[in-house]
Amino acid sequence: MVILNVFFDVKQEHEADFLKLLNHMVVESNREQGCSYYQLWRSAVDPYSYSLIEHWDSQEELNAHGRTAHWINFNDTVNEYLKSNYEEHHYSEIPA
Q: Mind listing the pLDDT tens digit for each residue in 39-69?
C-alpha cells in the first residue's frame, strides 16, 4: 500500500474554486481501480489549510492515477489557488 498526504495552504479569495476542484478530484479518484481511500480534510486550527489523504493499493495504480485527465487538470490548476505550491508526502507500509 502507498499512502499520500498532500498539504495545501489556500488563498482565502480562491477557497471556493479550490473546493470545487478538490471535490471533483475526490469523486473521480475514489472511482479509480486501486484507490481504497481518497478524502480532503480541513485543519482544525487554520480554516484555509487542507490535507488530502490518499491510500493506493500499489505504486502502479498510483502511477496510473497520475495519467488521468482529472489529475492532470488538478496539477495544472491547483497552485493558482494556493499561497505556495502544494506539498506531497509519500509513505509506504513497514511490515511487522
A: 999 999 999 999 999 999 999 999 999 999 9
Of residues 64, 66, 10, 72, the one with CA closest to residue 40 = 10
- The rounded radius of gyration (Å) of the Cα atoms in the chain is 13
pLDDT for 93 equals 82
Q: How far, CA to CA in Å, does 67 sit from each of 40, 93, 94? A: 20, 24, 27
Cell 506531497 identifies what position? 88
Which single residue is written with the C-alpha cell 470545487?
Answer: 20
Assess contact for 59 and 51: CB atoms under 8 A: no
- 82-91 average pLDDT score: 95
